[in-house]
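Bench notes, afternoon.
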Amino acid sequence: MYPKVVVFDLDYTLWPCWCDTHISPPVKAKSTDIVIDKRKFELSFYKDVPKIFEELIANDVLIVSASRTCAPAVARKLLTLLHINDQPAIDHFDFMEWGTFSKTKHIKAAMDRIKQEMDLDIPFEEVILFDDEWRNKDVESIGVHFAHLPNEDVGLTYDIFQKALFSYREKKQL
């Protein structure tokens, strides 16, 4: 059993930096899985991210990005240049909610868009947020399952992903 929606933070969740402070535009592709900025800083997804996305896509899970980035153009460029399964990563996101407000507001906005644009009324209890910042655990106040990523060096791993799914499934069976 998978949730209907999985929400990913970007920075230190999908990749090992803050795109609004560590990346110096312009950014260009070195390959389909590595980008480089003007200071020659190289960036790619954490190693398990493509596998996780492929599994979610194969199971018809909606994928949302929620980020407090102050550099949405940089984030968009990174997601356009980095590929998953031979397609730009950005194409795998159903919705993106970015801005300086809380993840609770991001998720509420995404769920409103899903309802309006896809005619799907998905309860918050069918959503998991993967995020490196503990403060975003407040999404549990609206029923969203929170999966914390405790180590910025490794970010989102397949093990963390599996543990979050297990925890989500156990909570759903209560």
